[in-house]
Known about the structure:
The chain has a single domain (2-148), classed as Arp2/3 complex 21 kDa subunit ARPC3. The two termini are 24 Å apart. It is globular and about 45 Å long. Helix 2 (33-43) packs parallel to helix 5. It is built from 8 helices and 2 strands. By secondary structure, it is mostly helical. The longest helix is centred in the C-terminal third of the chain and has 29 residues, at 141-169.
Amino acid sequence: MAKHVSKMALWLALVSVLSIISFPIGPIPITLQVFAFFLMAAFLNPSESFEVSMGYLTLGTIGLPIFAGGASGIATLIGPAGGYLWGFVPASIIASVAWRKSGIKRMVFLLMALISIYIPGALILSIYVKGIINAIKYGVLPFIWVDAIKIAVIFPLATRVTKFKTQSVR
Length: 170
């Protein structure tokens, strides 16, 4: 039990630290949140990924400044970027499943995980930017290439570390 709690706490801390790093480019900043959640998902099973994701939302909601740019509170969860935060919960579960697949199946699941962030993100953002077209324009399109790069960096990193971990256990 202590080992599990320690593992969850370490991943929660890593996700939180990487999520604070933010580069504002409009109503939605570029952050390392996708990188953090997708990396975490490579090393945790789906239920553990869910635990860390919910812990992240809970800690941010109660006031710890761990959302993008050091934001926190319920206002952040219902603000322009709130849908993206909610989307990290299903995304982390789907990404965790993805890392247990291989080849094209892995890529399809990672794409599904990314879409599960973009959909609630764009829907909530649409309230603030006068429509879904503007939400896609400001909250999805500028991030596709950035998120693709993040996943491309994680892919070999997670694969190598997982192989190393498997070899060292033998």
